[in-house]
Amino acid sequence: FFNFFEQLIDNLKSANSLFFSGVPLNDIYWFRSKLLVNKKDKNTLNMPLSEYLEFDKRPKLANFVLKIISTWIGGNGDTKTGDFLLLFNYKNLTKEKVYTKTNTTSITLNGPISDSLIQPWYDFLKQKGVIFHFNEGVKKLNISNGKALSAISEKENVIEADAFILAIPPKQVIDMFPRIGERLSVNYIKSHGFQFHFKEIPDLFVDKTIGIIADSAWGLSYKLYHTKKYANKEFSNDVKLTISVTATKTEKEKGSLYNKPLIECTLKEVEEEILFQMGIKENMHKDIMYGNLNIGVGAKYLEYTDFNIEKYRNWYHGPLIRENDNGKFFWAFENELINPDYNNRVGINSASCDNVFISGEWINDENQVWTVPSTIERCMENAAICSKVVDNYLIEA
Predict the structure, then answer these.
(1) How far apart are CA 72 and CA 214, in angstroms?
(2) Neighbouring C-alpha atoms within 13 Å toward the C-beta of 389
(3) Which candidate, 180, 247, 288, 289, has a CA 20 to 30 Å from the CA of 358?
(4) How far is CA 146 from CA 4, 28, 149, 178, in A?
């Protein structure tokens, strides 16, 4: 929480950013007046952001806001107004204003999600006796009288349980429950993370920790680690800084250096393009980088072969890329961000089956407090709420 003086300075900085982005003064004043809404005003909180902030009448304000939220949370004009207000007001949340503070906000992870959250979570569950069936999705549920009796995996394994939670992408859920498609309204964003290691800290990032680069063509955000220890891994003594970068615009927006979308660039071009968009020119990074760009888990730059095409057939494939030596490659992405918009009406109990529940980043629940898309806090709270719903069902059953 900020005291009055800190809040005043913060407001001035925000107004300054708007002004230097070309937003007219009257729109700046109007925008500041629109940042607080009574939390009981559900109609306003549930409307699309483009309507609430009058994007059609205020194009320069719209351009500024869209640059910020598309980079920050993969948002757009259909983002729910309440989610936007929650994001922009999180520094001074009080009961008298928009929302109350939750115990899941402002989580800081020491490394990529795969290393610092998913792997420890897997190890913990395995110790508890949880059985995992990797690389075999759910093909169907055997349902009788409004209740699921078992799940059938893609490898024809039969999994019996008292309750089933589908924490999977909507397309797979709709295959089992087609009517959910009528309630679904989401945006798919092929966002992905990369890591750089440096032997010296670039001058631009000496005092930085986390931030977004609003003017970056690929919607870059970053987090810096100023120690050798990164996700419980010790790198070489030569490494003084690790920069974890996320690109939220990979398919259409052309980069500033090579004038191509990320998904059409070679691996080397992606490395150079990201560094360029971060303001780290070649003469700055040539001698201080340790190794090359690392691709985060869930994406691969692959040679274009029949074997790879078949092995990664369930991943999203980018276009064919030709290297200078005429080698053929392509980008493959395993997953994507799935952001619910203002019109999404899928909830935990939308399967209309007594013991089948839905969880994940793309569903909405009236008990959620932190609803901002593309945030770990939202996923954690959603999972906690779903767990309580399932517990209550099992107790009653």
Answers:
(1) 8
(2) 23
(3) 247
(4) 56, 53, 10, 15
Q: Measured between alpha carbons, how far apart are the two ends of the chain, in Å?
A: 44
How far apart CA 275 and CA 285 sit, in angstroms, is: 8
Which residue segment(s) compose the domain that 144 sits in? 133-187+338-396
Q: Scan for tokens 């935990």, then name that residue.
A: 348
Phi-psi region of 255 (alpha: psi -120 to 50; beta: other; left: phi over 0): beta
88 shares its domain with 138 = no
Contacts of 95 (CB under 8 A, 6+ apart): none
User: Which residue(s) pair with 29 in the sheet?
Assistant: none
Same domain, 156 and 84: no
Contact 359, 173 (CB under 8 A): no
What's the structural domain count of the chain? 2
pLDDT of residue 98: 37
Query: What is the pLDDT, as a whole number, of residue 77?
Result: 97
Domain assignment present for residue 236? The answer is no
Strands 328-333 and 316-317: antiparallel
Confirm if 240 and 201 have CB atoms less than 8 A apart: yes
The H or E element containing residue 159 is strand 158-160
In this structure, is residue 250 part of a structural domain?
no
Q: What is the dihedral of CA 254, 258, 260, 263, to 10 degrees?
A: -110
pLDDT at site 345: 95
φ, ψ at 353 (rounded to 5°): -135, 130
Residue 323 lies in a domain: no
User: Averaged in consecutive runs of 10 residues, what is the pLDDT profile of the chain (397 residues)?
Assistant: 45 68 90 82 93 97 92 93 85 42 49 76 94 87 95 93 95 94 95 90 83 90 74 69 91 95 97 93 77 89 94 92 93 92 96 94 90 86 93 93
- State which of 38, 67, 92 marks the end of a domain: 92
Q: Classify residue 129 by burial, with Cβ atoms within 10 Å: 0-12, 13-18, 19+.
A: exposed
Query: Closest by alpha carbon to 34, among 52, 48, 9?
Result: 52
* Residue 370: C-alpha distances to residues 33, 47, 77, 365 (Å): 22, 17, 19, 11
d(CA 236, CA 290): 9
CATH code assigned at 382: 3.50.50.60
Domain boundary among 41, 73, 92: 92
- Of 270, 116, 121, 283, nearest to 192 by C-alpha is 270
Q: Would residue 280 count as lying in a domain? A: no
